[in-house]
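In the current project phase, we have settled on a layout for protein records. One protein thus recorded is set out beneath this paragraph:
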Amino acid sequence: MPRVVVFDEFGGPEVMHVVEEPMIEPAPGEVRVRIEAFAVNPLDQLMRSGASPAPVPLPHARLGVEGTGVVDALGSAVTGLEIGDPVILTAIPDASVRGSYAEYTTVPASRVVARPAGLGVVEAAAVWVAYSTAYGALVEKAGMRPGDHVLITAASGAVGRAAMQIANQIGAEPIAVTRHTAKKDDLLAAGAAAVIATDQEDLVEGVRRHTGGAGADIVLDVVMGPGQQDLLKAARPGGTLVAAGFLDPRPTPFPRLPLTIFSYRSFEHTLDAVAVKRMAAFLNAGVRLGALRPVIDKVFALDDVVEAHRHLEKGLHAGKIVVTA
C-alpha cells in the first residue's frame, strides 16, 4: 500500500511517522498524482507544531503544500490531462487531509500544471511555493516594473532568492537584506544588485545609498514583526510594501506613512485559475531562458522526513529542502 506521513499530536519533528494507507481513487474532476518529490516549507512546521493560523484536525493529520509527480489516475470529467503527464501541484488548501508528504495524493485537476521541461524532479518539487509567492507579491500585487528598486527581506531564503530572480527577469533592481555579512557574496552571486547586511550597516542608510537617496519603490517583507518599521522608512514616499510572510511572530506596529501596504498570501492567486495560468507562463519562460532556477539545499528520503524537519528548524539552510518519495 502507498506510504504517507502523518502526525497524531502537535510537537517537534519526532511526532511525524510513515504509515501505509489504501490507494484512494480520484473523485469527479480530480486527478491522482504519484508523488516523486515534495519540498519542506515553514508552513509545514507551523502545522506540525500546532502554531498554524488555520486549524489542523487531529489525529492522523497530513502535511505538504507543494510537490511534483506524474498523473496516475483521472477522475470523471477531467480534460486536458493524460495518465503519465508530469505535473506540479499548485495548491493543496486542505493539506492536513491530502498533503503532498506521501507517495500518492488526489487533488482537483485545476490544481496542477505541467512540469517545466527544463526542471528535474528535485527542482520541480521546490519551485512553486517560492516562485508563485514572489511573483504574486511583486508582479500581481505590487505591479513591479523595469527599473524599480525592490528591497527584499530574508533574501537567503527560498522566497527571497526567487524574488531576486523574478526582479532580474523583469528588469528591476533587487536589493537583498540579510542579517549576516558572511552571506553577502552568496547573495550577489544569486542575483542581488546590492546587499545590505544589517549586522554592519544601517538598513535605511544602505537603501538610500543604493537608490540615490530616493528609497525603495517596492519592499517585499517576508519577516514581519517590529523590524518592518525600518523597511517602511527605507521605502520612497508613495512606494509599496507587500507583507508576505510570518517569520517574526512579534506584533507588527501599524504605520502612519504615505505608502501603499498590501497583505499577501499565496492562496490569493494560486486558487485563481487565470492567475495560475499567468504564473505558469512566467515560470516556463524563466526556466527556458535560464533566469529562474530554484536553489536546493539538501535532499532527504521519505523515511528521513523527521531529519528533514530537524534540518529546517536549525535555520541554517540556503535554499529549499526536498524529500523524494
User: Anything to note?
Assistant: The first strand starts at residue 3 and ends at 7. The CA atoms of residues 56 and 96 lie 6 Å apart. The chain has a mean pLDDT of 93.
